[in-house]
Amino acid sequence: MPLLAIEILSPRQAAYEILQKFEVYFTLGVKSCWLVDPTTEVVAVYSALKQHQTFSSGEISDVVLDIRLPLAEVFE
């Protein structure tokens, strides 16, 4: 099982659909899940289903996996 799952929200998806996937991912042992919204250029980093941080500028910080990434690099 991977440590990180990244899902990109499409215009035809609702966020709750991806959160349902995240619930399965966490149950299977994934440590961190990212929800990328290209429309708003926002990344939400989930360390648990009901625990997340949202990044809309600056640097994405995933404390669980010790990942830091400039947000601009995600949306280039």
What does the model show?
- By secondary structure, this protein is of the alpha+beta class.
- The protein has one domain: tt1808, chain A (Alpha-Beta Complex), CATH 3.90.1570.
- It is built from two helices and six strands, in the order βαβββββα.
- The strands form two sheets. Strands 1-2-3-4 form a four-stranded mixed beta sheet, covered by helices on one side.
- The protein starts with a strand and ends with a helix.
- The model has no long low-confidence stretch (mean pLDDT 95).
- Shape assignment: globular
Task: Give, in spatial order, the strands making up the sheet with the most strands.
Answer: 1-2-3-4
N- to C-terminal separation? 28 Å
Element-by-element helix/strand order: EHEEEEEH
Helix content: 10-25%
Query: Averaging pLDDT over every residue, what do you get?
Result: 95
> What class do helices, strands and sheet pairing give?
alpha+beta
Strand content: 35-45%
The total domain count is: 1
- Alpha-carbon Rg, integer: 12 Å
What is the second-level CATH architecture?
Alpha-Beta Complex
Helix count equals: 2
Question: Which superfamily, in CATH terms, is the homologous superfamily?
Answer: tt1808, chain A
At the first level of CATH, the class is Alpha Beta
Which parts are unreliable, with pLDDT below 50 for 5 consecutive residues or more?
none
How many strands, which pairing sense, and closed or not: the largest β-sheet?
A: 4 strands, mixed
Write the layout of secondary structure elements.
Layout: E1 4-8, H1 15-28, E2 32-37, E3 42-48, E4 51-55, E5 59-62, E6 67-70, H2 71-74
Parallel strand pairs: 1-2
Antiparallel strand pairs: 2-3, 3-4, 5-6
